[in-house]
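Its record is retained below.
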Amino acid sequence: MLLTLTSTAAQASDLGYLLHKHPDRVQQFDLSFGSAFVHYPEATAERCTVALQIEVDSISLARRRGRRGDPGSIASYVNDRPYAAGSMLSVAIGRIFSTAMRGTCTARPELPDVRLPLRLHLPAVAARAGRGDEGGADLVERLFAPLGWSVEVGVSELAPGLGWGDSPYLDLTLTGDQRLADALSHLYVLLPVLDDAKHYHASMEEVDKLIRRGEGWLATHPERDLITRRYLAARRDWVDDALTRLDALDDRVEEAPTDEDAPPPPLKLRRLDAVLDALRDVDARSVADVGCGEGFYLRALLDDPRFTRILGLDVSARELDRAERKLGLERRSDQQRARISLKQSSVTYIDDDLSGFDAVLLVEVVEHIEPNRHDSLERSVFSAARPRHVVVTTPNVEHNHLFGMAPEELRHPDHRFEWTREEFRTWADGVASRTGYTVEYRPVGDEDPESGPPTQLALFTRIDERSHRG
């Protein structure tokens, strides 16, 4: 089993720093299923190649699994595991290149964020069909091409000269400009998906591994459901859990501008003003922004001293890291830093840290979550956390045609739906009646006489709070 990874970047031998493996040495690693070797066939300033070679001990692997199936069969000992890239290679990548996958490089801290011209070669890949999915080169293309890879697949005869047809194994080459951490994460997740099998007994921890290693790309991948199902061995409860967490990832319709000094889009500013006005109207002092992303609303809250306790909650650790950088917490006073905290969590899970706030923000969040999971959101926010107020914003689909959009087009590829004004009110009225809240509706943005505003806002108030204030 072999993987070679080649960089042709300027100072290509910097690959050794990123991988934390010195080009002048051959290193050996003991694995539960055999041994792994890392070495560099070439390492120059112009071109650097690292090879990860796995030698599988099929006999000890079969014996460790115990006696299963036909005791007279040699299938447990003679199979494709020693050479076909799959879960064993994935495990080896995760263990041997773990620091590189985390994007950590102490010696050269600027390197992990650099996109490198990379070439990945896997001479034997099993791309199996199954559960209604086509296998082969088409499956490889569907998995890797959306991630920015150029895919080249070679097929050879199974037994040249014997007329047995093509080999079921593919000679795969991927080329593209990628961060090394992303490239390794793509392989880590997608190799077991292609193989549609794992060599070890899977547990619920597989969900956490999938979410962690797929961060930044899996939530918006067009084959997300297929990847999740095959990676988690079609375990329904695990798949549902993973999809819920992926739905909670905050891929917003209006991304923050890449230029720090450029103002956000006008609608985003008007939405911010509307949300802040709602918070001031109810005299909220403690606010939790659920699905906070990179901290656009957190910055406005932190800059206003009336908000004395602020929580930013997001399912994506990467987004929380970006929020921390954009907020410049290291440059703020101790008093400001004491007012805010960031936490990784999901809006569809009950979280005790979400309790006790004057207000919870769900700004452009609900449309990213499948409707059949809205009951989990309702339970975690309105029933368990029970803030005094909840502010919800979501696109108004009736307004989309005024943006020049097609009738079935959504404002963001990760949106699961977009509500009309009536649909939004039906959902919000139902939540309010079931959980003991009243709800007030406010338009956001220029309101068209027929199509309404571009964004709709609902301000929920807990009934006992309303009685107390009255």
The longest strand covers residues 166-178. DSSP finds 16 helices and 14 strands in the chain.
